[in-house]
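Example for tutorial group B:
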């Protein structure tokens, strides 16, 4: 293998940038703060703190009154633990004096702020229990920063085994690229926001009955369906007989009742542009513009908006994030670990030089006999006939399971031919597992991830055929047998392994996404749980589903509009910015990271690419004279 020559400079030597939990001196007077079990305990307490704040809502206490005292007890215990840790760190580091003092370390400042928020939450809960402060009061918003303590549970994994200067340069370059594309996005938002104000304006003109009086507008005064209209007779939609086109805002309706979408001023216009650029309900905005203004304006404006903002800018944003991730991955190769070669779950593939001097991708058999089974069984287990027979039986089992159908409650306790087929297939696959264990030994069998999965299916399906468990959740194990069909196609197996096999990066990203969703749900829960007219954030499950709906981009505008109408006109801009930033991060940055990780998993090492093309590499680099001779001979033959 060809390796890059390492620089001999001192700066190139890898150093480790640890967090505050690991940087304390081992010779400190207070030794308990340096114990690994203390660090683990405090990380577990961070997760418990998030769980506690997720339960701390008026509706949750209304449904489960004991939880109010449970959360109070948990917060009290956590407060004492984290306060003791803060005092110990201040004693070791010093508060202000020294280069390593408490207030000069950013992680320590973060920990101290979390302790302060915990104290504030605990004092507030004492006032709520004593009924000095109403549980539905906005004072509950003081708990908003508390979910950020989740960072303490995972920051131990933020270890950079690179020089500090290189880390700084990487973050600086990456930040510049992301900042540039963010300015690019803001430019188009501002451009179309200004165009919207100049080309359209307000969408408050509706068709109402002729007897509509100002200050007394009801649903009965509106057309069915509610229709926007134009005051100009030659453009837009004209109201039918018996109706007239009136400005509902002039008739006494507020912006909160009419909705916040429109192009009244630059702020509302940018909000509407981003809403349309997300491709969620943008056609309804276009129809409003068509009904209120000339058609050509609406077509030109919204078609170009979708092209530039929804397609061009969004894809540029994703491309920049992917390129930035690729650059960071190259620099942080030491942190991620070396990339493994193309392997499968049952075999290991390596490059081997044959007698002719070429390179071949050869599978190394890890199913070497380690058990006490006879040689005939060993040969049977390793044969391709046995392998294809098992896979064909799995396919038949899947077809039989797919042929089953619901026969009503009366057939629930009756066992027909499908039950007998399931028993037969279960016995067959149990015998297969026993054969492999006998041939490989239990240790050799369980060492393969594929065999672990097969053993799990064997245990689950064996319990499933028990009569009392047949119509139960154990049916899922029978359904999961279809996963084994991936082994039919080696190309599919290799492709699946490339995506899911190196699970460190993809798994870390999934954990990060889940943690982000939990933290944002808890923050939104404490931000809106006291709003009486809003039921989307009364409990943590409701808040979680609302934030997940925004993450999926399906109906996220409905969640935002309901919240805007509930909080009132004064807080509407703050709430709109909050949801837009969350949606922007979830749909662009987070999605781009998933695409970048998957693309990175599909790539091969440069060394492997060279090994897969050794002849071309030899001809073009090591023996260019041979290429010239072959070209001359080819030219003479053609002549």
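The residue assignment follows.
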């Amino acid at each position: 293998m060809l390796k890059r020559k390492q620089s001999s400079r001192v700066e190139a030597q890898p150093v480790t940038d640890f967090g505050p939990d690991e940087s304390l001196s081992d010779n400190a007077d207070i030794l308990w703060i340096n114990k690994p079990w203390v660090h683990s305990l405090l990380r577990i307490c961070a997760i418990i703190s998030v769980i506690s704040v997720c339960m701390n809502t008026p509706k949750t206490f209304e449904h489960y009154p004991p939880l109010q005292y449970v959360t109070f007890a948990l917060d009290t215990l956590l407060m004492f633990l984290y306060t003791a840790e803060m005092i110990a760190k201040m004693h070791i580091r010093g508060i202000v004096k020294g280069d390593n003092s408490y207030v000069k370390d950013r992680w320590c400042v973060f920990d101290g702020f979390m302790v302060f928020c915990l104290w504030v939450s605990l004092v507030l809960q004492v006032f709520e229990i004593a009924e000095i402060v109403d549980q539905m009061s906005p004072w509950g918003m003081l708990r908003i920063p508390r979910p950020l303590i989740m960072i303490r549970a995972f920051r131990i994994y933020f270890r950079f085994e690179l020089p500090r200067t290189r880390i700084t340069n990487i973050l600086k370059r990456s930040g510049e690229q992301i900042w540039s594309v963010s300015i690019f996005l803001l430019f188009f938002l501002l451009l179309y926001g200004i165009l919207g104000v100049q080309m359209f304006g307000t969408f408050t003109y509706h068709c109402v009955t002729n007897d509509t009086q100002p200050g007394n507008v009801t649903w009965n005064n509106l057309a069915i369906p509610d229709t926007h209209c134009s005051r100009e007779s030659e453009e837009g939609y004209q109201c039918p007989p018996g109706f007239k086109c009136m400005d509902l805002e002039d008739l006494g309706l507020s912006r909160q009742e009419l909705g916040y979408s429109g192009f009244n001023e630059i702020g509302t216009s940018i909000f509407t542009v981003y809403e349309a650029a997300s491709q969620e309900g943008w056609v309804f905005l276009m129809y409003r513009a068509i009904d209120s203004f000339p058609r050509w304006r609406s077509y030109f404006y919204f078609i170009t908006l979708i092209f530039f903002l929804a397609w061009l800018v969004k894809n540029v944003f994703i491309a920049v994030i992917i390129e930035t991730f690729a650059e960071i991955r190259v620099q942080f190769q030491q942190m991620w670990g070396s990339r493994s070669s193309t392997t499968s779950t049952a075999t290991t593939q390596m490059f081997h030089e044959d007698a002719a001097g070429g390179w071949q991708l050869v599978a190394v058999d890890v199913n070497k006999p380690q058990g006490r089974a006879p040689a005939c069984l060993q040969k049977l287990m390793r044969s391709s006939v046995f392998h294809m027979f098992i896979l064909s039986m799995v396919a038949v089992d899947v077809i039989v399971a797919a042929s089953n159908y619901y026969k009503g409650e009366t057939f629930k306790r009756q066992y027909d031919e499908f039950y007998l087929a399931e028993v037969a297939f279960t016995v067959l696959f149990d015998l297969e597992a026993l054969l492999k264990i006998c041939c490989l030994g239990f240790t050799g069998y369980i060492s393969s991830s594929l065999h672990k999965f097969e053993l799990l299916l064997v245990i689950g399906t064996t319990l499933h055929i028990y009569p009392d468990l047949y119509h139960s959740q154990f049916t899922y194990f029978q359904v999961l047998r279809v996963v084994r069909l991936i082994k039919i196609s080696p190309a599919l197996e290799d492709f699946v392994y490339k995506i899911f096999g190196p699970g460190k990066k993809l798994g870390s990203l999934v954990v990060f996404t889940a943690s982000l969703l939990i933290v944002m749900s808890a923050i939104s829960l404490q931000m809106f749980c006291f709003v009486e007219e809003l039921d989307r954030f009364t409990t943590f499950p409701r808040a979680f589903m609302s934030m997940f709906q925004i993450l999926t981009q399906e109906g996220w505008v409905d969640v935002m509009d309901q919240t805007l109408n509930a909080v009132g006109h004064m807080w509407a801009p703050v709430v709109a910015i909050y949801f837009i930033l969350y949606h922007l991060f979830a749909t662009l940055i987070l999605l781009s990271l998933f695409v970048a990780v998957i693309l990175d998993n599909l790539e091969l090492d440069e060394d492997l690419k060279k090994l897969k093309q050794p002849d071309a590499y030899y001809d073009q680099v090591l023996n260019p004279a041979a290429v010239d001779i072959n070209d001359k001979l080819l030219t003479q033959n053609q002549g």
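The first strand starts at residue 205 and ends at 209. Compare this with the pattern of hydrophobic and polar residues in the output above.
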